[in-house]
Design the sequence.
């Protein structure tokens, strides 16, 4: 497991956007960032799930979050511009983005991979993080220390049979991160890195490995040290890296 002990106020006064914040790793990351002082912007496609996370954060007495229902599969350029304008009016800056939302697609050979599903996976896993990062760039530039964290996977570094669009999208995510990191290096306070959560107990993991006992897999709470490290000031000089949370 990634070793890091975050100070309780690590993310005090930070504004951090988390995609896929309604469930799985994104939900736990949003609550963890809020618990460390951040104002989190909860983005996801299912309003009810986002509201539950919102209520949990509010009930715990953490900074009041913001809620952004947005389907990253169908979102258009004007949706991203509207979001940016809203966040600009509300906060004037963004200190972090956790690009976490993804879909698995299907586990099937390339030979029979449904091209429609291929496009959906690319849209959610790759194109949406690109659009979101590009549109929010002016707000990231307003931060003293902005951290953009993309979510990768072990099959985004070495693929395996039947991982299709998911693996391709994660390889491309690593490439997007490296390109952005090199462009911002030394010229502004924006850093970009990837995180590979490793096998984690979520719906996606169950969908990918239906025969596995979920209790044998690491809980999302246990991988949070790496997420906190990448979001906070202790990783201020880390740029263009791909970290393993486990
Ligand atoms: P998950 O349980 O399936 O959660 C995915 C989240 O993304 C959900 O909140 C989901 O919203 C959201 N989402 C999906 N499609 C969306 C869309 N079109 N628009 C907006 N939000 C959307 O997955 P997870 O396991 O937590 O995975 C989180 C990240 O870690 C992903 O990038 C995944 O590739 C990566 N990862 C996970 C593992 C693992 O073992 N779990 C391993 C390696 C990498 P709904 O809840 O509304 O569906």
Sequence:
């Amino acid at each position: 497991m990634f070793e890091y002990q975050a100070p309780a106020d690590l993310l005090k006064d930070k504004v951090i956007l988390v995609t896929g914040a309604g469930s799985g790793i994104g939900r736990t990351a949003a609550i963890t960032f809020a618990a460390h002082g951040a104002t989190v912007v909860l983005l996801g496609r299912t309003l009810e799930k986002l509201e539950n996370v919102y209520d949990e954060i509010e009930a715990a007495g953490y900074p009041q979050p913001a809620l952004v229902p947005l389907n990253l599969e169908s979102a258009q350029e004007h949706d991203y511009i509207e979001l940016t304008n809203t966040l600009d009016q509300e906060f004037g800056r963004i200190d972090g983005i956790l690009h976490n939302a993804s879909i698995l697609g299907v586990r099937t050979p390339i030979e029979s991979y449904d091209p429609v599903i291929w496009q959906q996976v690319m849209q959610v896993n790759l194109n949406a993080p690109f659009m979101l990062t590009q549109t929010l760039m002016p707000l990231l530039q307003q931060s003293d220390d902005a951290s953009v964290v993309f979510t990768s996977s072990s099959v985004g570094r070495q693929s395996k049979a039947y991982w299709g669009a998911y693996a391709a999208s994660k390889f491309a995510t690593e490439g997007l991160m490296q390109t952005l990191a090199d462009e911002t290096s030394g010229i502004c306070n924006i850093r970009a890195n990837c995180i590979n959560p490793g096998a984690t107990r979520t719906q996606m993991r169950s969908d990918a490995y239906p025969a596995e006992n979920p209790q044998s897999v690491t809980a999302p709470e246990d991988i949070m040290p790496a997420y906190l490290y990448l979001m906070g000031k202790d990783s201020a000089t880390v740029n263009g890296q791909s970290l393993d949370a486990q």
In short: The two ends are 4 Å apart (CA to CA).
